């Protein structure tokens, strides 16, 4: 999907594909990233985010397709470290080297004055430990060191792979503001994450992938409106069930879509809250609850990627490991009723035609629903797309 | 909840850095590699152990010969440095492998190659810095040990050729052996694996030759003995295991050829593989 109103395409991928043996990490991925905005790169673990990042930086060669930064493949970019800065893996430093020497060697390699090292150490707040060996750094300090390395060349394109991993709340806030500030200076900021909640408050634009394929490419605002399913929860007095029926009928008559909830409440879609209240008053029904609910981006994202999750957790059955209860003793085994969590309901899928992010149904490579995903959801023991794999 | 879509006024106002942009070159990469190699402890440790081995063994052998009043006139005095250098070569190989393979082990290589996408330049800079470091250190150590041995034993003085080969020649040979290790480290990308391969390369030919008793294999046995790395090192000291095979400065050219081929292969692989 392209939009002509983005005049600039700092990062542009066309038909990017990467296979590792039989495993396809990224398949036919096309997108572009524009300057002056934070672009979030979202996807479940193993979706191909890191592989894509490595291909952008010319570290991995694509099996097919191409990706350019500023109009050129990264490896042909002159003064590359002054154009592009990247944080790929916070642990990608020699632990025996001090933070300052690590950055100094990178600055020297890029032809950047050595005093810039102390500057970026100040920016990320690591001056105190600049002379300490990075082996003793916490994950958060490692992330800060990686961000310092990315900022070293004062580049116009910045790539961050999971930058908030291991950061404390203060650090997360700092990274969030840093990204926004960098983007407001006219830089291109491309941030990967598997946390929708983080991206929702950081990014202006979202690129969502699953199983190495594009699921969505749109602004956060469009994403919300395409996936929003606002509804009101209404509860009538439990003691008088007939009031519930009465209200339900009145609301349906007014054009609302009413769905009963398992705890006796009603989920009302399509009517504003004051109107619901008026209708209830008109029908002479007392309300115990009338509350607005908005589908979070997290929910929309979960629904979008549920068919594209590689690593799915299951309930720990402890099959055959538990002691068999003696017959006749103890309370009889009770079926625990399935009580849904209050306040969390996956919104219904958007209407057809409203979800431009959806993968084309004709493509058999991407299972569209959880049922189709079951055979492929078996855990793959070795995932070559992850940088933490020993090579 | 979300930030406005347009942050800055003019759309397309791409950021440009106020820091003057200068095109990086090989000199920058050499400075960077020098910073890297001097700022890790493994460099200090391997070179310290090497110094200890060269000086310690060299002086101990000399001292043992003086105290036992053995007549060593049929043997060049400088060749007493051989044992120390042979053991010291293990340190050089280890350091050579670690110079490249540790970057793969830690993942630093991705940071490095992001900062310098011209991959060949990184490997060239590593090779130059490592070669210069090993050559300088070995030259200083072999000179010191040689002078000390001649002074302690005090039986005749070596010729200029002997001096040159046992100091300059041996230092160049060790530095080239180190380059071979560096190239192997770059190809194997795994410290322990590459070090094992290098130690095997040094020791296996001699060990294998020991078990080749049959007549039909004697040519192979001779070749293994003559061209094994310890024997070639011995040739530089006029202290060869056999009387045939490479003579004079020849071991140096052989090692130069091997190291060049290995480095060439390392370049090709570095440029084509994913990191």
TrEMBL record, chain B:
<feature type="transmembrane region" description="Helical">
    <location>
        <begin position="192"/>
        <end position="213"/>
    </location>
</feature>
<keyword id="KW-1133">Transmembrane helix</keyword>
<feature type="transmembrane region" description="Helical">
    <location>
        <begin position="252"/>
        <end position="270"/>
    </location>
</feature>
<feature type="transmembrane region" description="Helical">
    <location>
        <begin position="163"/>
        <end position="185"/>
    </location>
</feature>
<feature type="transmembrane region" description="Helical">
    <location>
        <begin position="128"/>
        <end position="151"/>
    </location>
</feature>
<feature type="transmembrane region" description="Helical">
    <location>
        <begin position="44"/>
        <end position="65"/>
    </location>
</feature>
<protein>
    <submittedName>
        <fullName>ABC transporter permease subunit</fullName>
    </submittedName>
</protein>
<keyword id="KW-0812">Transmembrane</keyword>
<feature type="transmembrane region" description="Helical">
    <location>
        <begin position="77"/>
        <end position="101"/>
    </location>
</feature>
<keyword id="KW-0472">Membrane</keyword>
């Amino acid at each position: 999907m392209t939009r002509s109103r983005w005049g600039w395409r700092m990062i542009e991928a066309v038909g990017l594909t990467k296979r590792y043996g039989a495993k396809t990490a990224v398949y036919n991925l096309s997108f572009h990233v524009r300057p002056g905005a934070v672009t979030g790169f979202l996807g479940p673990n193993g979706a191909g985010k890191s592989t894509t990042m490595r291909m952008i930086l010319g570290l991995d060669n694509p099996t097919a397709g191409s990706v350019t930064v500023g109009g050129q493949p990264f490896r042909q970019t002159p003064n590359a470290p002054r154009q592009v800065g990247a944080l790929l893996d916070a642990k990608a430093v020699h632990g025996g080297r001090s933070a300052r020497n690590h950055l100094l060697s990178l600055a020297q390699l890029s032809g950047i004055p050595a005093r810039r090292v102390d500057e970026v150490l100040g920016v990320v707040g690591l001056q105190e430990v600049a002379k300490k060996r990075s082996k003793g750094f916490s994950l958060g300090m490692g992330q800060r060191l990686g961000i310092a390395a990315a900022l070293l060349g004062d580049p116009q394109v910045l790539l961050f792979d999971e930058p908030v991993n291991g950061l404390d709340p203060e650090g997360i806030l700092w990274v969030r503001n840093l990204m926004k500030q960098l983007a407001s200076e006219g830089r291109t900021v491309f941030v990967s994450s598997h946390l929708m909640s983080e991206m929702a408050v950081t990014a202006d634009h979202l690129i969502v992938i699953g199983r190495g394929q594009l699921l969505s490419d749109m602004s956060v605002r469009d994403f919300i409106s395409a996936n929003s399913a606002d509804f009101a929860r209404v509860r009538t007095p439990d003691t008088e069930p007939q009031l519930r029926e009465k209200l339900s009928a009145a609301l349906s008559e007014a054009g609302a879509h009413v769905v009963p909830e398992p705890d006796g409440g009603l989920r009302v879609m399509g009517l504003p809250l004051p109107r619901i209240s008026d209708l209830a008053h008109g029908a002479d029904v007392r309300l115990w609850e009338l509350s607005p609910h908005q589908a979070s981006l997290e929910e929309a994202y979960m629904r979008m990627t549920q068919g594209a999750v590689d690593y799915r957790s299951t309930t720990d059955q402890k099959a055959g490991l538990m002691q068999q209860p003696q017959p006749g003793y103890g309370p009889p085994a009770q079926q625990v009723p399935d009580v849904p969590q209050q306040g969390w309901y996956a919104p219904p899928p958007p209407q057809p035609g409203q979800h431009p992010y959806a993968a084309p149904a004709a493509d058999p490579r991407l299972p569209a629903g959880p049922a189709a995903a079951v055979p492929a959801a078996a855990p793959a023991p070795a995932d070559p797309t992850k940088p933490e794999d020993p090579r | 909840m979300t930030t406005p879509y347009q942050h800055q006024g003019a759309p397309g106002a791409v950021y440009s850095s106020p820091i003057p942009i200068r095109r990086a070159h090989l000199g920058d990469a050499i400075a960077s590699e020098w910073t890297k190699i001097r700022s890790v402890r493994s460099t200090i440790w391997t070179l310290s152990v090497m110094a200890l081995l060269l000086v310690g063994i060299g002086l101990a052998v000399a001292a043992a010969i003086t105290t036992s009043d053995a007549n060593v006139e049929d043997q060049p005095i400088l060749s007493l440095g051989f044992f120390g250098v042979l053991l010291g070569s293990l340190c050089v190989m280890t350091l050579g492998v670690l110079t490249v393979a540790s970057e793969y082990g830690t993942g630093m290589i991705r940071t490095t190659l992001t900062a310098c996408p011209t991959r060949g330049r990184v490997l060239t800079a590593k090779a130059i810095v490592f070669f210069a470091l090993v050559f300088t250190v070995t030259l200083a150590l072999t000179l010191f040990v040689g002078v000390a041995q001649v002074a302690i034993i005090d039986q005749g003085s070596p010729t200029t050729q002997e001096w040159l080969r046992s100091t300059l020649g041996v230092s160049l040979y060790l530095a080239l052996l180190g380059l071979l290790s560096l190239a192997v480290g770059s190809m194997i990308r795994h410290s322990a694996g590459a070090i094992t391969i290098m130690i095997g390369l040094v020791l296996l030919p001699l060990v294998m030759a020991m078990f080749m008793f049959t007549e039909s294999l004697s040519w192979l046995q001779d070749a293994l003995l003559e061209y094994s790395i310890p024997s070639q090192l011995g040739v530089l000291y006029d202290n060869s295991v056999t009387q045939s095979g490479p003579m004079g400065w020849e071991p140096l050219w052989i090692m130069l050829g091997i190291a060049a081929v290995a480095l060439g292969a390392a370049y090709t692989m570095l440029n084509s593989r994913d990191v």
